[in-house]
Structures are given as C-alpha cells and as structure tokens.
Amino acid sequence: MGGQKFSDFAPPSKCTDRPSAKKRLYQVWRGRNKFLCGGRLVFGPDAGSVLLSTVLIGGPALTFCIKMLLRISELDFLYGRIVLAGGFILTFLALSFLYMTAARNPGIVPRNNRPPVDFEVESVRSLDWASCGTPSFKIPRTKDVIVNGHTVKVKFCDTCLLYRPPRASHCSVCNNCVQRFDHHCPWVGQCIGVRNYRTFFCFVTTSTVLCIYVFTFSLLNLLEKPGPLWRNMSDDTVSVSLIVYCFISVWFVGGLSVFHSYLVSTNQTTYENFRYRYDRKENPYNRGIGQNIKEIFFSKPVVTRINFREWVNEADFHVQSISRKFSADFIGTNGKLDLELGVIGKDGKPFPGILQNLDYKGIEESLKKPKGGKVIVDPFVLPSDQDDKYTTGDSFTDEDRSEFSSERTSSAVLGR
Ligand SMILES: [Zn+2]
Ligand SMILES: [Zn+2]
C-alpha cells in the first residue's frame, strides 16, 4: 500500500547514545499502546480482547478437531486425516493472523514535540503572557494536498502536533494518528492501518473459511451416521452446538469478509466508506480493481516510521505532557496560574510556542458563550480523546461537526 510521504513535520528528537537520563521511546510514548518484549511488540490499549477472540475461535475449532480425532477410526483413512489436518491448519492460520494483526504497529505517525515550522507567530510576545490580551497566532487548520490529481484536505492533529498524512486519522482509543486508518478493531484490540490491514483481511477471511469448514464437516458427521437425523442430533450434541455456533458466527465474519473485499476492490478504508458515503466525492485512490488489489496485497510492505526502542530524551516528552495538562487546568481554574506553571518556570523550561501565544481569555469566552447554546469545544485545549471521536461503529458525526466548528473556534480563539 502506498503511504504518502510527508516531510513537513520533524520526528521527535532522537539519539543513538545512551546517557542515564534517556529512555526508550516506548517507555515515554503518550499513546495508549501496550508494549511487550521491550517495545518490539505494539498492542492497542484493549489488547486483552485478543484472548477473548482466541477462545471464541480456538475453542470451537479445537473441539471440532478433537471430535474428528476421536472418530478417526470410524472414518475412511484418507478422509479422516485430511479433514483433521484441514481443521488444524485453518485454526493455526486464523490465530496467527490474529496475533500478527494485534502485535504489529498499525502505522502510527510519529508525534511532534513542538508544532511544525508552518506555525508562524505573527508578532513576538513576551513570556509574561498572562498579561497579554491580543492573540497573535494563526493556525491553518487544514492544508490542501494533491493526490492523484485530486485535491485532498489534510487536517492538523492537535494531539500529535502534525498535519495528518492523507488517509491518516487519529484513533481516539489508542490516541495516535495512524496511516491509512481503517478502524479500531475491538476484537483485535488494535488499530487497523496501513501496516496490518493485510493480516487483518487474512484473519477475517480465514476465520470465515474455518467457520464454514467446521459447519460443513460437523453437519456431515451427523448426516453420515446411520439412523434417523433427530436421534443422531440428540446423541451428538457437540456437533449440533458447533453447527449452531458456526451458523451464527459466519454471518458476522462472512459479512466482514464481503465488506472488506468490496473495500479492497474500490481502495477505500472503512473510515472513508462511512465518512464519505453521502458526499458523493470521487475516490482519488481508486485506480481500478486490479491495481487496487495489487496495491493493497502485493505492494512492498510499509516500513514503520517509529522505532519504539530508540533512546529519547525523556524531558522532551515530559515538557509537552505538562504543558498540555496545564492548558486544560488553566481553563478549569478560570485564568489563574496553576502550580504546573511554577514547575515549568523553576526548571527554566520554556512553554512551547503554541501555548505562549494562545489567547486563553478568548478560549474561556468561547467555552462560556457558545453559539446556539451549545458548548463549542476547541480540540486544541482539551485532552486528546476529545479530538476525533472515531470509534468502531457509528460515531463519525463528531468529526463532521468538528470540521465545521473548528473553523469557528479557531478564529474565535486563535485568530485576531
Ligand atoms: Zn493525532
Ligand atoms: Zn486504535
């Protein structure tokens, strides 16, 4: 899959040496990911659901295999062994694809510790910002980027402090921007993005095949036995349970397989499909079914843009987290200086420019006097999970709303 290159943001400061104050990036990472094996395996925050998925897939599949193993002497020599091996192989593949999807960095975009250079401060303001009343900061909320001859708007992510690459979106569950964001899968406990979509697709399709496989051979087990079917059913409750379980499950996994096959053939993500369904915009990434399949399944794997094991300056990440907390606290304390400010001041750490030049008074007023009686929320000053409220399912409308409201609040808060 082609990941668009974006060079207008600088990655977090890197260093190759290892002084004692340094930490590995995964140890200070501000996303909600969980890491194993020293940052080599990257999971989502709800990684525990992988265990549930393992039980839901592996439980019935292994029950089927054990059942076949017990019956193998009654069956034709070749038939029994082939069916048994097929069951084991499909179970192994489905679970392997599940773990490969869950433990892989989905394509997280490296965060910035500071806003990119595009953020021009129009006039230099004193550090005594609390006494200043006139805002002097201009932030372009979106940028136009040309993709395959189409103009695509990319938005600025207030949490990651960067312009999202085209097709990237901020996952509110993981609190990261993810390249070619598809959705956050609660069954895998991980974002599905540019780097794990293939294995996710393989996981869904092999699960569907496994479901049909267990259903078919469990039904044959009942039909092949001599005697009336109803008596066989009452004698073999395991096969009946497997048939019912697979019949219900196949609608779910089979539906997902069909849906993602359609997405692959049209080169859409789940997010784009829901987001732009009613916009009737032309999909700039659709290059014909053959090229789309080639791009998604046969292009070079996208290399990760983050090395979670690299050594970083812990202080860089600390400053930003404090300043974000400060910005939230500040509004809550009605413009009074918070303790956090003192901490930063004593350490001699400057506020990031973005905070020095914000008109906090304006922010407060915009929160107090919402237009149309509704609180206008500017994502710039709220905790990151207020940013893009995309979760799997149906909550796309919040971003739609924020697109319209962000311009209002940006001009109210950040403009002149
Ligand atoms: Zn982001
Ligand atoms: Zn996620």
Automatic annotation (TrEMBL):
Location of the region described as Disordered in the Swiss-Prot/TrEMBL record: 378-416
Membrane-protein topology: Multi-pass membrane protein
InterPro entries: Palmitoyltrfase_DHHC (IPR001594), PFA4/ZDH16/20/ERF2-like (IPR039859)
Magnesium in keyword set: no
Membrane-spanning segments: 50-70, 82-102, 200-222, 242-265
Catalytic activities: L-cysteinyl-[protein] + hexadecanoyl-CoA = S-hexadecanoyl-L-cysteinyl-[protein] + CoA
Full protein name: S-acyltransferase
Organism: Salvia splendens (Scarlet sage)
